[in-house]
Amino acid sequence: MSGPQLTFSYFDFPARGELSRLIFTYANVAFTDDRVVGFSEMKPKCPFGQIPVLEVNGTLYAQSMAIARYAARVGGLYPQDPLEVLRVEMISEKLLEILNAYIDARWGEETLRAAKYKIFVEETVPKAFGALETMVQGKFFSGDKVTLIDVQLLDVVLNGLDTIPEPVFNLTAFPKLEAIVAAIKANEHVTAYLTNKH
């Protein structure tokens, strides 16, 4: 039996759309990557008048994290055990907090940007990553099995931390997290996707 017909629609930049793209890509789930240009024409059809949206067999669904979790389920990157789901979603929400703090710094008042970047890189991220480092249970957050949060960590690093001009952030102080990022990037599908992006 073939899987659902999936079309993911978002602007041609990472922001709120890249996590779902990365999950589908890592899991090798077939989907159409629709890079939206004329959003005004599409807007009335979207459930909340915004993107990203995921079309599944002709029906549109919205909200970036809902789509990402669906992508993880379809791709086999979501746990079955309720307690493990709780743990994965706990870490996922912390990673989302980090990304939201980055977005606040990046798109907030321009005169405050440098100061916000400094606080983000030197205080916010080290504190959060220090806690996350202790939660890695093997090669990945959940032992030897990749889940949503391993891919989400890559998204936060590539499309958040790595885009900050200064102060420069690197993962060397967090070797377990650094190893997760390297392993997800080394996935053949992700490698090809990232290579073709640049």
Automatic annotation (TrEMBL):
What's the protein here called? Glutathione S-transferase
- An example of a Gene Ontology BP annotation on this entry? glutathione metabolic process
Q: List the molecular function annotations (GO) for this entry.
A: glutathione transferase activity
List the Pfam families hit by this protein, alphabetically: GST_C_3 (PF14497), GST_N (PF02798)
Question: Taxonomic lineage of this organism?
Answer: Eukaryota, Sar, Stramenopiles, Oomycota, Peronosporomycetes
Domain (GST C-terminal): residue spans on this chain: 81-198
Per the UniProt record, the source organism is: Globisporangium ultimum (strain ATCC 200006 / CBS 805.95 / DAOM BR144)
GST N-terminal domain: residues covered:
4-79
Entry-linked PROSITE patterns: GST_CTER (PS50405), GST_NTER (PS50404)
